[in-house]
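Q: How would the structure tokens look for this protein?
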Amino acid sequence: MNTTQHTAAIDLANKNGVRFPNESGQYREARDALLAEEIELRRHIERVAEQRRALPPGGAVPKNYACVGEHGPVAFSELFGDKQTLAVYSYMYGPKREQPCPMCTSLMAAWDGEWLDVEQRIALVMVAR
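A: Here is the predicted structure in token form.
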């Protein structure tokens, strides 16, 4: 993406045709300024993501850690399967907790419908102590 050829964010915001009933000119001016900032924020997020994707491979893991999977012992290297990237979600449900983390539980429920799509590109595992 060539960032030098972007339309100015404020120009894009000013072209936005969405208006609210009875809005004042002062509100519209402030809302367009906010929209321009949101556009710039999105552009910045995209630039950072581009840098992240361009990173060279990280360091090697010093040893093949042993984990306990749902079917018994598994080596850390096996968690990758046939993928080069592994995403690990740490589920907060340690030995001293009486109940699992409600936010983690909610997120895991959401992943239930997404993991097949995610695993087309990366390996995804969830771990808990």
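Residues 35 and 127 are 39 Å apart (CA to CA).

The helical segments are 9-15, 25-53, 102-111, 115-118.

Upvote if useful.
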